[in-house]
Amino acid sequence: MKNRVITISREFGSGGRTIGKLTAEALGIPCYDQETITQLMAENGFSEEYVQEYGEYYTQGWINSFLGRTNGPTKQDQLWMFQRKTVIELAEKGPCVFVGRCADYILRDTADCLTTFIHADMDKRAERIVRVYGEQDILPKERLSMKDKRRAAYYQYYTDMRWGDVRNYHVAMDSGVLGIERCAEMLAKLF
Amino acid sequence: MKNRVITISREFGSGGRTIGKLTAEALGIPCYDQETITQLMAENGFSEEYVQEYGEYYTQGWINSFLGRTNGPTKQDQLWMFQRKTVIELAEKGPCVFVGRCADYILRDTADCLTTFIHADMDKRAERIVRVYGEQDILPKERLSMKDKRRAAYYQYYTDMRWGDVRNYHVAMDSGVLGIERCAEMLAKLF
After folding, report:
1. Contact, A7 vs A104, CB < 8 A?
2. Rounded Cα gap, residues A34 and A53, in angstroms
3. Residues B61, B68: Cα–Cα separation, whole Å
4. C-beta atoms of A167 and B117 within 8 A
5. Does the model's ipTM exceed the 0.90 cut?
6. pLDDT single digits (tens) B45-66
7. Is A178–B166 a contact, with Cβ atoms under 8 angstroms apart?
């Protein structure tokens, strides 16, 4: 019998992580997000900074990436393999929520997944990241655009599927219009 | 005060029309689908067959389509304009559900829309269209593929937006996995 799992893919700043936490709380099951995974990867010898920078964002510059692979897997590939193993092991423990980390793809054959995608329009996300993470040197919209592009590239590279393609998800929701709490309610209800 | 409307875009065979009807029933509001619109267009002088064939499916063959426009709007353009006007007028009457007809785009400025997209995988849709519409000379999967392509082309041509792009919809659901009844329940709840 496969464990039931909710996977949440999300645009940067859409509140996907908060939706994951609220959903997991409502269901009384654990939520594994960037923080949890980073900690587990740190126990496997990866620095926290490296995991945060490369754990679901593709390395910038295709030349680096290409040349890096002529002698076998890159450091990012090794991180991917560790993360993949960790996601599978966590899902084997029992029902849970995963935020990001391509969990929808990784668990497609080993768990009974409800795959979801959370998005919101640029203005709402820009307002939110400044409120949640504070101002940075780079403009909010540029930051969002860069983060989304690198997440999409990472997903595409390791899964060979298109990130954000409506057909890859059982449910997709606009958190900017529906609201973060309501998205979490719907997911808990659908689970 | 804008009227509240649910718009349902859907892949052929995903049960979007049934979801629209069930949602409208649950909310006690009218549902306008292909049948209703075809009837209203027939009253404006378009044959039922023409509306069913070209009311939301793009004309095949770009040469016909291009040459047809050298002397002004084609017959399909005229149908689009009539349908557009009809959708706006119906939405002005009160809260309702629209299935197809690019209602999400048409009503974006005049109604308070919950825009949705219903999809399902090819196997489930193929099984469903044979069960609901019966066998035809053309294989179910070819029929689906052709219908989807023509719907996408129609939507793209008249709205300049990409049909099925997750970011264009407040909610997208896989009816093959979630089930038609549950999709309708979620929409009624979100409304």
Report:
1. yes
2. 11
3. 11
4. no
5. no
6. 888 888 888 888 887 655 555 5
7. no
